[in-house]
Amino acid sequence: MKVLSIAIQKGGCGKTTTTINLAAALHKEGRSVLVIDADPQASLSLALGVRDDPEKNLYTELLKEMKGENGDLTDAIIYTNSGLPLVPATIELAGAELELVSIYGREQILAWMIDKLSDRFEFVIIDCPPAIGMLTVNALAASDYVLMPLQAEYLPLKGLHSFMHHFKAIQRINKKLQVLGMVLTRYDERKTMNREVYHELEHDFGDKVFRTHIRSNIQLARAQESGTDIFNFDDTSNGAHDYKELSVEFLSKI
Question: 0.90 cut: is pTM over it?
Answer without folding.
Answer: yes
